[in-house]
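tool=predict chain=A
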Amino acid sequence: MDLQLPTTTIGNYRSGSQRARVSTEPWAEANLYCPACESPKIDSLPTGTHAADFKCPVCASRYQLKSQRTKVGDRILDGAYAAMQRAITSDETPNLFLLHYKLPQLTVENVFLIPHFAFSMSCVEKRKALSPTARRAGYVGCYFALNRIPSDARIQIVQDGRPTSSSDVRSAYEKLRPLDKLNVKRRGWTLDVLNIVKSLNKTEFKLKEVYEHEDLLAKFHPDNAHIQPKIRQQLQELRDMKLVKFLGDGHYLLL
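tool=predict ok
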């Protein structure tokens, strides 16, 4: 994998950020591969294609690329809230590549992938509507809260200038693929409970420790008045996915 952004596409752009912006998509097409299958490449889609930049020529998985010159933090700016809500609830979100590049070197420093089945409404933060005097008055945008996505679902492709092996990337993707079989609403619960389990930073944990985050889950799922039974149900889902193991007496092992 070549971590140098190409310069043949930058033309007369003088700004470093502009030069990087027009070279990240050609870099991705030349260097990225499909984590969902064995295809060694992904193909660019026509300019203006809704919500996707690339498509796998083998399995047809769709990918969107977002790039920035600062290291990716806990959240990233996205588009219209209503459009994202429709995409998630209808299960039409693409896989997302997040790329961090370095200036003025024009090098790729970090890339990670969020599988399309790792998005839920819990990770979407609604922004305030633009004021009546704004050019796009009333527009409501959103952020992706990446810290609400389980760390397992933030798959490193490049880390600190070092590529991860494609076999490790595909293995990480495959480990989470059972989420794709769940309906969207059920999947959102599973992801939220997994994120809480991961946030405990423990290999072994207790059911009561997950219960302590009941208020947060109630905030994310206000239509459910039976949070604790739902937590137990989702821990069973995670057990079936071989992400946790029951040890008995309210104790669990994170695999």
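Residues 16-31 form the longest helix (16 residues). The chain has two domains: 1-179, 182-255.
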